[in-house]
Design brief:
Shape: globular
Number of helices: 20
Number of strands: 12
Strand order of the largest sheet: 4-3-2-5-1-6
Number of domains: 2
Largest sheet: 6 strands, parallel
């Protein structure tokens, strides 16, 4: 069983109250820069056991009468067809996904902002598409010398040239498909325009990580560095907060570096800055909801190792430099962990060495480790999955949940008609076959009903899995890692 260390209900209450306090501080109008993932924050759920992946959106639901959402997207990212690595969809498509998701939670989406707009043709086409869908679109423009040239930035020739975003609610949540979209600049532009209209509005920042009131080298904060190793984010002591209050807090380099500029912008707009440090700008209450530090430390160390394996695989695919690997190795050392602390990896590798074929292993909730090997009918992951379900259901190892008479026709279909070279069944095909068998076989039905128990289990494969298998494991909620090698020596590895 996963050892819990985070009180999610306490967090929801504290976080919503904190945001309400910040709204009141600025007279009833707050622009809240929302960093990280609003939906499906599985990183937070992994390093803070007890944290629900949809916590942020559920927190916003508590404020939905006061909140509206503004989504920003960099026009340059539209032009480049920038893709979200975790979802495999372009940023412009993700904006539509986000709008649907927000509306599904009963939240009001006010508009979309195209930042860094230079007349890009693809952005113009996208603007028309959004308007056709009934979505308001605003445009913000590049400012020469940003962020250093403050007199120009905070003027009619700077922020003043941007469209004023018409908002209706007291809490305006500024979010985006990914980093570099222009969330902060959008917030500050609005403060300028609101001030010109005689409206006092405030700015705050909501980032889950790093956690400001945990130690700099706390495993949870190190895990954040591991998650952003390719972005070169670095956790650091907030020097401004230390100087102002004599209190040690943690922030990350980009916020610390930009704070003098932000402070100067506030002074230019309002005459004085409401904040003395980057930490002051934040409203994050995650750290105050941890009740078992040892549990979250263990979870964070495990996450750093998983990130290391992922980076090794990304490098093998040609998508990552050695520098990122070196940084993750350093983070593992700082956290006091390593690959030897991942039992499923050891079990899978031992099974692979014994068989001379790809193998996979899973650690079940009671810490039992089950393996699977490659056969003529099944891939290692598929075999492992069936073995795990049998173990959870108390079904003997010798029982065949899926008859070869069912598997063989599927193989013939794959190879003979669908053009596949690999006849072995992927995990999705195995699960479909198991569903068919479950209609008439009580044992197959019993095994199928164990799927929910796989959530949060650790899985390791001795080879990089196909995107199909990766996707299935992701949907099952398991934590997957792979050795950085392919099953074949081919240059192209499809689905």
């Amino acid at each position: 069983m996963v050892r819990l260390g985070f009180d999610n209900e306490k967090y929801l209450v504290m976080q919503s109250e904190r945001i309400k306090e910040r709204i009141a501080q600025f007279g009833g109008k707050l622009y809240l820069e929302f960093g990280g993932k609003l939906f499906d924050d599985y990183h937070a759920a992994r390093v803070l056991p007890g944290y629900k992946p949809d916590s942020k959106i559920n927190m916003l639901k508590q404020l939905k009468e006061d909140a509206e959402i503004v989504i920003v997207i960099n026009a340059g990212d539209i032009e480049k067809n920038k893709v979200r690595g975790d979802l495999g969809i372009t940023y412009d498509m993700d904006v539509l996904r986000l709008i649907d998701a927000f509306r599904g939670y009963g939240l009001y989406v006010g508009s979309v902002v195209l930042t860094q707009f230079r007349g890009q043709q693809s952005a113009i086409v996208y603007e028309k598409k959004l308007e056709t869908l009934g979505i308001k679109v605003y445009k913000h423009y590049p400012i020469e010398g940003y962020p250093g040239n403050i007199p120009l930035i905070v003027s009619d020739e700077g922020y003043g040239k941007n469209d004023y975003i018409e908002t209706q609610r007291s809490l305006v949540v500024i979010t985006a498909p990914g980093p570099g979209s222009g969330k902060m600049a959008t917030c500050l532009s609005q403060l300028y325009h609101e001030h010109k209209r005689g409206v006092k509005a405030g700015y705050a920042k909501f980032e889950t990580f790093p956690i400001w009131n945990l130690p700099l080298r706390h495993p949870v904060n190190l895990a954040y560095e591991a998650a952003t190793a390719d972005l070169n984010d670095v956790n650091m002591i907030d020097p401004f907060h230390l100087e102002a209050y004599g209190e040690t807090t943690v922030n990350y380099n980009r916020d610390v570096e930009v704070f003098p500029v932000l402070s100067a912008m506030f002074e230019q707009i309002y005459g004085s800055s409401p904040y003395k440090s980057p930490t002051d700008m934040g409203v994050n209450m995650v750290g105050k909801s941890i009740f078992d530090d040892e549990a979250v430390c263990d979870a964070a160390r495990a996450e750093i190792v998983r990130r290391y394996y992922k980076a090794l695989c990304d490098r093998r695919k040609g998508n990552l430099t050695d520098d990122v690997i070196y940084k993750l190795e350093l983070l593992m050392k700082q956290a006091g962990t390593g690959t030897v602390d991942r039992p499923v990896a050891q079990a899978a590798n031992e099974r692979g060495e014994a068989t001379g074929e790809p193998a996979a292993a899973i650690e079940l909730p009671d810490s039992t480790i089950v393996t699977g090997k490659t056969s003529a009918l099944l891939g290692a992951s598929s075999a492992m999955l069936l073995n795990a379900l049998k173990t959870l259901a108390g079904i003997g190892k010798g029982v065949k949940l899926i008859s070869p008479t069912i598997i063989e026709p599927i193989q013939k279909l794959k190879v003979g008609h669908l053009g596949n070279h690999n006849p072995r069944l992927h995990t999705d095909e195995v699960l479909i076959a198991l569903c068919i068998c479950a209609a008439t076989d009580p044992q197959a039905d019993l095994a199928l009903r164990q799927l929910e128990k796989l959530k949060c289990c650790e899985v390791h494969s001795t080879v990089i899995l196909s995107s199909v298998d990766e996707n299935v494991f992701q949907k099952l909620g398991v934590n997957l890692t792979c050795e950085p090698q392919y099953q074949t020596k081919k240059l192209f590895h499809g689905k």
